[in-house]
Amino acid sequence: MGVVYQIEETGDESARGGLVATECEQRYDIVAQGGTGTFDEANRAFRGWLAKNAPTRNRLVLDKEDGVEIEEEPESLGRVWRGRATYRSKTAQETVDGAAVKFGAFVSSFTTAGGTARIKRSLATAAYPIAGTAPNFCGGIGWNGEEFDGCDVTTPNFAFEITANTPRGAFEDFGALADRVANYQGTVNSRPFCGFAPGVVLYAGISSGALQSQPATETEDEFFYWRATHTFLASPNREIDVEGVKVWKPGWAYFWTLTQKSFDPTTGEIVPVIRAAYVETVYRSTDFAGLGLGYGD
Asked: Which domains does the chain have, with CATH numbers?
């Protein structure tokens, strides 16, 4: 008959987190009965016992990844180990070790550092005639006689990352994960996503990823999963006034205007005027729910 491990609580638990505990710790004795054991066997027995008999404590949840430790009692010759189990609130686990949030995904970083863009038209123009009447260029910036030179401006540039653990048994083959990402990379959200309206969020793909393993326990075998960090960029939808005509531009659409030369009777000069405005759809729209990150409206 193999070694049987007897597991018993030892001492009082310790709690942390102020008036409402967000974390507590309980210690255990793990004793090999019927012979001597090994560290790996004792570790599996302890984890299995906790999962079955003590998965929660005082409304806190066992931290299975980083909250279970054992060490052999000196001079016990493979007979006694000291175990420690840490229980945390869901919020504490999310903060400490990035535990699963919304189907295993959580916003891991974001930045609002501004980008730049070259524009050819202004929002408003104040003209100051110096010698004669100032021609009306319809908001165009820097007319050189042939085209508008434009200017560089700082633009909103909101980027954020979502780190996710794939479900057990999903995408164990790297190619399957790559195929899924390829179908969504370079697309914009067709439905609300993370609080953003349709058309605002562009999926830029995975910025980092690695294969992870879940150690075996007494009740389940070792299994593998992927931890990947997905990058998204946000550009706001906006309404553009073009000579009194309201033009709706989705965040990642491309806006441009067609100009033609016209005689300005006020100044007697040939000046460019806007003939039409265009909004071009340049990114395909998809429902990001298919990424399996658990984020929706």
From this structure: 4-96 (3.30.70), 100-297 (no CATH)
